[in-house]
């Protein structure tokens, strides 16, 4: 068996084209603010790609890059200042943050209505209560990638490899709503191999190259590889692509799989938030007759 490739770049192009059209219709320039701490190579790649894509479709982009040893209060202040800006509709704190910083606290500082990643606890709470709530960009992007296979999520035995509940919890909520059976395992779990042997769908986001090999997989597995690590000047995923692609049914490459779609969905969410704000402004703005009456 040779796996079919899920072309994330093609999916991302479609999303960005739709987003550009949406931006042209709202008479407002959406703004994205990105905060990055340290010099993690994979994070630098993602921030650059966000900037490039934003410029192509008409999203205003600003980034604040802080040294590795920046104290937590400085990061919290930067987030708070972006929360207060009317020209910034979406905020991203680029993860992972350096050790010693409280990631949960910093993410909680983001205004939930500006959190385009969708990791804020308030958004997770809304998602758990409202099936129609806005999905985190990564979750929605993964759904679009899975849709490329033509398969149904209902009944899929799914394994999520993740060391972070910030990532795995909203994804698990969404998948279970679609009828998938979901097991979450850590990258260092002794049960990893046995879990993978049963998986119809594998989603991995650990950042450990070669963590998953073809020998560990059930034939026909769909693989969505979120992991990114720079090794010898190139970006690789958690999955050993050469061996896995001989066993899997479908697989996302790294690069060119999940990454471009994540960036595209993030910008799509920025445009959505700007559109929501524009609608709110228009709704609250008194019409000419009302202004005349007020003047009287």
UniProtKB/TrEMBL annotation:
Residues 141-277 form the Tetrahydrofolate dehydrogenase/cyclohydrolase NAD(P)-binding domain. NADP(+) binds at residue 228. It comes from the Bacteria. The lineage of its organism: Bacteria, Candidatus Uhriibacteriota. SUPFAM superfamilies: Aminoacid dehydrogenase-like, N-terminal domain, NAD(P)-binding Rossmann-fold domains. CDD domains: NAD_bind_m-THF_DH_Cyclohyd (cd01080). Keywords: Amino-acid biosynthesis, Histidine biosynthesis, Hydrolase, Methionine biosynthesis, Multifunctional enzyme, NADP, One-carbon metabolism, Oxidoreductase, Purine biosynthesis. This is Bifunctional protein FolD. Belongs to the tetrahydrofolate dehydrogenase/cyclohydrolase family. Homodimer. PANTHER family: C-1-TETRAHYDROFOLATE SYNTHASE, CYTOPLASMIC, C-1-TETRAHYDROFOLATE SYNTHASE, CYTOPLASMIC-RELATED. Residues 6-117 form the Tetrahydrofolate dehydrogenase/cyclohydrolase catalytic domain. Its EC number is 1.5.1.5, 3.5.4.9. It catalyses: (6R)-5,10-methenyltetrahydrofolate + H2O = (6R)-10-formyltetrahydrofolate + H(+); (6R)-5,10-methylene-5,6,7,8-tetrahydrofolate + NADP(+) = (6R)-5,10-methenyltetrahydrofolate + NADPH. GO terms for biological process: L-histidine biosynthetic process; methionine biosynthetic process; purine nucleotide biosynthetic process; tetrahydrofolate interconversion.
């Amino acid at each position: 068996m040779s796996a079919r490739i899920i072309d994330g770049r093609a999916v991302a192009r479609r999303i960005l084209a739709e987003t550009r059209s949406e931006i042209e219709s709202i008479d407002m320039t959406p703004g994205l603010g990105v905060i990055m701490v340290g010099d993690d190579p994979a994070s630098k790649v993602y921030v650059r790609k966000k900037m490039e894509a934003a410029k192509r479709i008409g999203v205003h982009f600003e980034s604040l890059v802080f040294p590795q040893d920046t104290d937590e209060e400085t990061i919290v202040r930067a987030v708070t200042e972006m929360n207060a800006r009317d020209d910034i509709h979406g905020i991203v704190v680029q993860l992972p943050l350096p050790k010693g910083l409280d990631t949960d606290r910093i993410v909680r500082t983001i205004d939930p209505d500006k959190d385009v990643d969708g990791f804020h606890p308030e958004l997770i709470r809304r998602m758990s209560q409202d099936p129609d709530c806005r999905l985190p960009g990564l979750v929605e992007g993964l759904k679009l990638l899975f849709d490329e296979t033509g398969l149904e999520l209902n009944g899929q035995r799914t394994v999520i490899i993740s060391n972070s509940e910030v990532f795995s919890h909203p994804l698990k909520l969404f998948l279970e709503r679609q009828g998938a059976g979901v097991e979450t395992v850590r990258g260092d779990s002794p049960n990893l191999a046995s879990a993978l042997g049963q998986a119809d769908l594998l989603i991995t986001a650990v950042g450990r190259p070669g963590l998953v090999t073809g020998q560990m997989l059930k034939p026909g597995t769909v693989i969505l590889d979120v992991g990114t690590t720079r090794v010898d000047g190139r970006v690789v995923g958690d999955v050993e692509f050469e061996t896995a692609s001989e066993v899997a049914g479908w697989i996302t490459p790294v690069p060119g799989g999940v990454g471009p779609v994540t960036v595209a969905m993030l910008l799509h969410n920025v445009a959505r938030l700007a559109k929501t704000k524009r609608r709110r402004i228009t709704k609250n703005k008194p019409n000419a007759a009302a202004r005349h009456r007020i003047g009287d």
